[in-house]
Specification:
With 365 residues, the protein is an all-alpha fold. The radius of gyration is 27 Å and the shape is globular. It is built from 15 helices and 1 strand, in the order H-H-H-H-H-H-H-H-H-H-H-H-H-E-H-H.
């Protein structure tokens, strides 16, 4: 057997290749990683089998009364979720009209999915949204086309959560761009106004803005003038979200190389041409992760509207838990609602990753 020369290619050790190599590199790379791996495996073995046994193997999937679940041998009572799913999803909306908020949810999910497809990013998409939102208003309020009128005090559940979050993000995002540009403006008055607004709104929690919109705002309005409770909550969410998004957008504007600004000026473009065609597209591409993170936060913060008497998805669940005929099944209800939140938030997260990868074209050689 000849000795290997300088040009002989040696194969890597067997333990550094394939699944064994992956395990060694990611799970047992050192003493600390090994300890974490052992603790994680122990925690999974201690919790996952017990959870599967409770949630699936011993679960009660259908029961006419809560007593059947009580008699079960320590399993989950998913019959409670089935019994209360309409109240959880649609709140106090009239029972016989539940097809209307259900159709609203389908419209929202369809439009969100359509908006995620890049080939639909045209002017027509805005028109589609206008038609869709008009249909949402007609379905939820009614009073036309033979539909029974339903005041928005009875709106609740998933449709209300989607309305508050979609409208909040849709109106807050363009406002945040204007605030971010204003904060970087060379005009002292505009810059000062934007700074005061952003810092003032970011300095207080959303619940205080909702409280002000519900309790304090009517005190400053003329006699006989009043805004709808849902509209007040929507405005508070928009103002709150815009302040946080503005700082994210400003971070993207500051992260953009100075040469991009100089190149745009060298082309002789006007301010809005330079901003809309060159600066903003690149800046927004840089801050896709924090933007989506803020969107997810806004989506979950809609549960705070309970302070002004609106019942979103989470608070509709809380209302269903007070039924004396089905007491003590809060774990099942919260798990079901958390799966809905997780599905929507996970979709936003994965889509942002795909969009970021698709748009990652800058600075590649």
């Amino acid at each position: 057997m000849t000795a290997p020369t300088a040009t002989t290619e040696l194969k890597p050790p067997a333990l550094s290749q394939g699944w064994l190599g992956w395990i060694r590199e990611n799970l047992f790379a050192g003493p600390f990683n090994t300890l974490l791996t052992i603790l994680t495996v122990w925690l999974l073995l201690a919790t996952v089998p017990a959870f599967i046994d409770w949630a699936l193997l011993k679960a009660v999937w259908s029961a006419p009364t809560a007593s059947v679940c009580r008699e079960a041998a320590g399993g989950a009572c998913w019959a409670f979720v089935y019994e209360k799913h309409r109240l959880i999803l649609f709140g106090l909306y009239p029972f016989e009209e539940h097809w209307r908020p259900m159709l609203v949810v389908v419209i929202f999910l369809a439009m969100i999915g359509l908006s995620c497809l890049r080939r639909f990013w045209t002017v027509w998409l805005a028109l589609y949204w206008i038609v869709a939102l008009t249909a949402v208003g007609i379905l939820m309020w009614g009073g036309v086309l033979g539909l029974t009128y339903v005041e928005n005090e009875k709106w609740g559940g998933l449709p209300l959560t989607l309305i508050l979050s979609v409208f909040g993000i849709a109106f807050a995002f363009p406002l945040s761009i204007l605030l971010a540009l204003g904060r970087r403006s060379n005009m002292p008055a505009i810059k000062a106004l934007c700074v005061i607004y952003i810092e003032l709104i970011r300095g207080v929690p959303l619940i205080s803005l909702l409280f002000m919109a519900s309790v304090m705002l009517p005190l400053f309005l003329p006699t006989g003038v009043n805004f709808d409770k849902l509209l007040r909550a929507q405005i508070a969410i928009i103002l709150f979200a815009a302040a946080y998004l503005a700082e994210v957008v400003r971070g993207g504007l500051q992260a953009l190389p100075k040469g991009q600004y100089e190149a745009a000026d060298a082309l002789g473009l006007a301010y809005w041409q330079k901003t809309g065609l060159i600066i903003l597209p690149q800046a927004l591409k840089l801050v896709i992760p924090p933007l989506v993170n803020t969107f997810i936060g806004i989506f979950k913060d809609t549960s705070l509207v309970v302070i002004i008497g609106l019942f979103d998805l989470l608070n509709s669940l809380k209302a269903s838990l007070v039924d004396p005929a089905w007491p003590g099944f809060s774990a099942e209800g919260y798990i079901a609602v958390s799966l809905i939140y997780f599905a929507l938030c996970y979709f936003m997260s994965k889509y942002s990753q795909a969009l970021e990868a698709r748009l990652a074209t800058g600075h590649k050689r």
